[in-house]
UniProtKB/TrEMBL annotation:
HAMAP family: RbfA (MF_00003). The gene is rbfA. This is Ribosome-binding factor A. GO terms for molecular function: ribosomal small subunit binding. One of its GO terms (biological process) is maturation of SSU-rRNA.
Length: 130
C-alpha cells in the first residue's frame, strides 16, 4: 500500500505528465490522445510507473515512440516540478490495457447463452404448500 506521500507525489506526476502530453510532447504523439490512467511511485520516490491509455492511434506504435523519448519527457517534467520536488523520478511507461480488456469481457459476456430464470410464481406456490 502506498503512503500518503507516495499518493500525493503520484497525483502530481499524473497531472503534470498529462499536461506534458497535451502541450510540450504534442510533436511526439501527433493527434493521438494519451491519457495517464495511473501512476505508482516507489517508496523512495525515485521511480514512477506510468500507465498510459491511447485513443485515435495505434497503441503499440505510440507506446514505443513515447518509450524511446523517455528522457525528453523526463526533462519536460523536471522543468515543471523541479523546484517543488527533490528528485525527478525515473519514468517507466506501461500500456494500460484495462479498457480493451473491459471491451473483451463485455463481448464474452454478451455472447454467453444463459437460459432464462424460472418464473417467480412457481417459487411462491412451492412456499405456500409448506
Amino acid at each position: 500500500m502506498e503512503s500518503k506521500r507516495q499518493q500525493k507525489h503520484a497525483k502530481l506526476l499524473q497531472k503534470e505528465l498529462g499536461e506534458i502530453f497535451q502541450k510540450e510532447a504534442r510533436h511526439l504523439v501527433g493527434k493521438a490522445m494519451v491519457t495517464i490512467t495511473r501512476v505508482m511511485v516507489s517508496p523512495d520516490l525515485g521511480v514512477a510507473k506510468v500507465y498510459l491509455s491511447f485513443l485515435l492511434t495505434d497503441p503499440q506504435q505510440t507506446y514505443e515512440l513515447i518509450n524511446d523519448h523517455k528522457k525528453e519527457i523526463r526533462l519536460y517534467l523536471s522543468k515543471r516540478i523541479g523546484k517543488s520536488v527533490r528528485i525527478i523520478p525515473e519514468l517507466a511507461f506501461f500500456p494500460d490495457d484495462s479498457a480493451s480488456y473491459a471491451q473483451h469481457m463485455d463481448k464474452v459476456i454478451g455472447n454467453l447463452n444463459i437460459p432464462p430464470a424460472p418464473e417467480e410464481e412457481e417459487e411462491d406456490e412451492d412456499e405456500d404448500d409448506n
